[in-house]
Design a protein that fits this description.
Elements (H helix, E strand, L loop, with lengths): L23 H16 L4 E3 L9 E4 L7 E11 L3 E6 L9 E6 L1 E7 L5 E7 H14 L10 H17 L1
Antiparallel strand pairs: 1-2, 2-3, 3-6, 4-5, 6-7
Length: 163
Amino acid sequence: MLNIVTLGDERLKKHSILVPEFDGEIQTLTEQMFETMYANKGIGLAAVQVGKLIRLFITHIPNDAARVFINPELVETSLEQGAFEEGCLSIPEVNADVLRPQQLKVQAWNLKGRPFSMDADDLLARVIQHELDHLNGVLFIDRLDPKKRERLVKRYEKVISDG
């Protein structure tokens, strides 16, 4: 299992680079990421959250297949937006409502190096956007009002210090 990088680690603020090769190393990393995500009861995990600054994330929401997105790009998003409570394995025990587009189209590559595109809505669209943000150095709390973000960071710091 991999260690999850948490709030305060500078890697979470960096842009991830393109995955240059679809090799056994990426396959192994992906398997370890799924194991780590499941052990932490997550539904999405970006490579940067396990210390790898590459454009790769995984998702597995209820009633959907486990998915791998390599070098993903958002093609389009809906004008319709919705607020929904989000959390993050890199900021444990902190949740907040985040406003995001409700539908999207994304293109990426799978583990075999084959390109694909897909439409997503509701929870899957939200998780894809959340994980894509990670690849661009953005955390869900960065999308909040500054005062609310400050309160949540203080709450997180208290959770960490209380152990």
